[in-house]
# Entry
Amino acid sequence: MTTVVFENVRLIDPASGMDQPGRLLVQDGRIAGTDKPGAEGRPEGATLIDGQGAVLCPGLVDMRVEIGEPGYEYRETIASATRAASAGGITTIAVLPTCKPAIDNPALVRMLRTRGEETGAVTILPYGALTKGCEGKELAEIGLLHEAGAVAFTDGNRAIDPSRLMRLALAYASGFKAVVVQHPEDPSLAGSGCATSGALATRLGLAGIPTAAESIMIARDIRLAELTGGRLHFAHVSTGEGLELIRQAKARGLNVTCDTAPPYFDLNENAIGDFRTYAKFSPPLRSEEDRLAVCAGLADGTIDAIASDHHPRDADDKRLPFAQAATGGTGMVTLLGVTLARVHDGTLSLPQALGLLTYRPAALLGVEAGTLDVGSMADLCLFAPEQSWLVTAGKLPGRAQNTPFDHRPLEGRVLGTWKAGHRVYEADAA
# Structure
């Protein structure tokens, strides 16, 4: 029997409301109990971890990650993505189907789940492709993919455009109580745009994407969800208008949820500067007004989870003219630190922020994770919320280095990550 005792830690379990100093006992990879600080006694032969007052919380659950394997290993592999996840305190990742081949085959779902187990450091939860090849033409075999272990269905950053196809997807998926995840951006309005429509895009000579591209797609799909009774989730919501539509849908009792990503509550369109491609995203960075609206959505509960939206790209993808450069940025290593910035500025409490990163995305995905309940898997993250570190592109764990937060000091340093009670990451000495 392997036994680990965490002492001198602040235990935060947003799922149960626990927030107290204390001790935590892990036996054979599972949480065996908690105790008050200074309690006497320790199992014989136990490994002692002195947290020195740091926060011990459930391992983070990242519900939106793209990896390059299979097909784009030059961007990121399962091994390199695992290193990045562990360094970010993440123990569970939901992987988008936009690889090559797309995850529209049950064998690929099972393979990715197995590869996650083989790492011993991260649980991989594959999304199933909503359409064959993620091409938006014909529905994939949702039933078979669901049976194989797909946690939800999406085409990644490709919106399901024809209303009829989206209606069929929601209706079919509802038979399996499966979640359809939509990229909320009307393709005909987005066109070849690469920045949010407005003065900045005009000044830079960039084709603009109106914010209405998001709200129009959200409005349409809410109506389709109401028509079919399907479970609908909107990814990386970035506008105040879109959030208001979701807020209203929830008030009507519809089964509609959403997430956002750190760039949309930490950065605004000015971050693209003079054609800074590392800040090119889909959807694009928005106005400061929209950024503040996303912060408000986090605080009032309209937004159900925060995902890293990790999209690895290499230099050949990004070091191009802005309009030609690929969208996306790395996000797993910086997920916790950027989220904690909203704690430091008073937008969220620490338990609120951690809830958006742990049990709430786990609940959306229907998996048992993100909690410190006795008997649950000992997936743990130990971090110092006030300890600062500098984001440096080129020195981040993992293969991909295309971070929009390069040279940004962050408060909130991951000190250690444990998967099933086994330590998979230890920070270098400060």
